[in-house]
Design a protein that fits this description.
Radius of gyration: 24 Å
Low-confidence stretches: 1-21
Helix content: 25-40%
Strand content: 15-25%
Distance between the termini: 74 Å
Structural class: alpha+beta
């Protein structure tokens, strides 16, 4: 009876985990597609009610026979243990001291391929890859080797795996209950290209003979044939079509995010709109390309702006339908799917969403010493609502605001970035068109100041590095912590300001940074902006003459 209960719990946790982590996005930028020659990659981890701190793992050496306990990322459930590596590397967030960065998006894939008996989950696979690898290729070997040896208990995943020289996408899924085996394929992103994945497998037909740019498990094609997922020559094999055939959800709620980024970076992407809309049969539409070459080389800020997309200016935009409300909101409440009088409905799924627990952009530079070259630009909340702050890969401690004692999913702290940023954004969401411009001004001003300081800070760090590594590391450590605390302090100030300025739907007027007062000084000078112009029109059109003044 106890065994049956344990198995049932494992099945429930597996399904819940797939749902819990299903909404993420990753952008990969090759070094010749970036303005400064860096490889860049990103991660928006979208969870419902999830609280995430910045992970930190110390570097270490471990004696023979030492074991590593495996707890899954989403629920901290214990799965088992594996031998510890003799040497492990420093990790901050999703970047290690060697400038290896790893992220993921869950594509689920075929349900029958989930293997709950495996030890390694997707989150542990990333952590282990970061702790045990000096290059992206080495990380892919570590991750696939561990999954093959100890079993993989999550559903299908697309992993971003990057270092300062190479960028890769790795797609992996299990082989079914009790198999403790996986199939996988990895493709190197061209240096001049940008690749995005967002909860839909992206790897279709590739040149399998190009072993310098493609790696594939020995069983990947033969297992697909065995299961009846694929027929044809090896050269015709598509991992996506075999293991994660695109559905309406995969196209409209996943690949639409890919399309949103690609259309920002190059022309001619509107021809793929019928594919991402998801309503035409696959046989009649052209799938998105695996990657695109951008029309211009990208800065870190350009990449951040991609993560802030709400489908603006496209047929998928949500700022002028009844759901936009009185203040033109580009957001919709969860769940994404719902019903009305028996009709199945859905909400669009833009990149920037209230449900992001953390977001980052990694900047990986081979032309600088690794202590200075690797930066993770981090934010705890909606990518459209945060100012990303830099944390260097050599940092010995993460900023306190990203790992605040006492702060968790159940306990608010005004020193914690997740809670303070959510405090502000949750004031903005209900009155988006009214409050967002003010948040955007603060966000962009603060973000710009960090970019301006970057060259000065790194020049100083390079000078210190010549005198000793410890001096440079301590300096960058202090700087990473300084800007994190500065950001949280500015966000707290904005929270207090918004409560006063926008109280009860009126707006207190300001002049030279102070609130205006009436002639006696007793009352504030107010305006009553009311609803947006779009909302006024929608109400008029929807209500006919009901609210017209005779």
């Amino acid at each position: 009876m106890k065994i049956m209960k344990a198995l049932l719990l494992m099945a429930v946790m597996t399904v819940a985990g797939m749902f819990h982590t299903r909404a993420c996005t990753s952008v990969i930028v090759g070094k010749k597609a970036s303005a400064d020659g860096s490889v860049m990659c990103t991660y928006n981890i979208d969870t419902w009610g999830g609280f995430h701190k910045m992970y930190h793992f110390e570097a270490g050496t471990h004696p023979a026979g030492a074991m590593r306990k495996i707890f899954d990322r989403d629920y901290r459930t214990y799965h088992g243990q594996i031998p510890e590596a003799p040497v492990t590397y420093l990790v901050n967030g999703n970047i290690n001291e060697w400038q290896v960065a790893i992220s993921e998006t869950t594509f689920d894939g075929r349900e029958e391929l989930v293997d709950g008996s495996g030890i390694i989950d997707y989150g542990s696979l990333m952590d282990l890859g970061l702790q045990r690898s000096r290059t992206a290729r080495e990380a892919i070997g570590v991750m696939t080797g561990l999954a093959e040896k100890y079993g993989y208990c999550s559903s299908g995943e697309s992993f971003t795996v990057c270092d300062p020289d190479e960028a890769w996408i790795l797609e992996l899924i299990g082989c079914g209950k009790g198999s403790k085996n996986v199939v996988w394929i990895a493709v190197r992103v061209p240096d001049d290209a940008v690749l995005v994945h967002a909860n839909q497998s992206r790897i279709r037909r590739v040149d399998l003979t190009d072993t310098a740019h493609v790696m594939i498990s020995k069983n990947c094609i033969s297992f697909a044939r065995k299961k009846g997922y694929f027929k044809g020559a090896d050269s015709e094999f598509s991992f996506c079509d075999a293991y994660n055939p695109p559905t309406f959800g995969g196209r409209r709620l996943g690949d639409s995010r890919v399309w949103a980024v690609y259309r920002r970076l190059t022309t001619g992407m509107d021809c793929y709109l019928p594919y991402v809309e998801g309503k035409e049969p696959l046989s009649q539409v052209e799938p998105l390309p695996l990657w695109i070459v951008p029309d211009k080389k990208l800065t870190v800020n350009d990449v951040i702006e991609c993560l802030r997309d709400h489908f603006e200016g496209t047929p998928l935009a949500m700022d002028d339908d009844p759901g936009a409300g009185l203040y033109d909101s580009p957001f919709r409440p969860q769940p994404l799917r719902y019903e009305d009088q028996g009709t199945k409905m859905f909400n669009e799924r833009p990149l920037a969403t209230p449900h992001t627990a953390f977001t980052w952009v990694c900047q990986l530079r081979s032309f600088m010493p690794r202590e200075v070259g690797g930066v993770i630009w981090w934010g705890n909340d909606d990518s459209g609502m945060v100012a990303y702050t830099p944390v260097y890969c050599c940092a010995q401690r993460v900023p306190r605001c990203y790992d605040t004692p006492g702060a968790d999913a159940f306990h608010f702290s005004d020193e914690n970035a997740y809670w303070v940023c959510n405090w502000v954004s949750n004031m903005v969401y209900p009155r988006y068109s009214l409050l967002y411009p003010e948040l955007r001004q603060v966000r962009d001003s603060l973000q710009a100041s960090y970019f301006v300081r970057q060259q000065e800070v790194e020049s100083q760090a390079l000078e210190l590095l010549a005198d000793g590594r410890d001096l440079a590391v301590a300096y960058l450590d202090d700087y990473s912590n300084e800007v994190g605390e500065q950001m949280v302090a500015r966000w707290r100030q904005m929270a207090y300001h918004m409560i006063v300025k926008y109280n009860d739907g009126v707006v207190r007027q300001e002049e030279n940074g102070r609130y205006r007062r009436n002639s006696s000084g007793f009352r504030p000078v107010l305006t009553r902006p009311g609803m947006s112009q779009k909302a006024r029109r929608r109400i008029h059109q929807g209500s006919g003459k009901r609210f017209e003044v005779p």
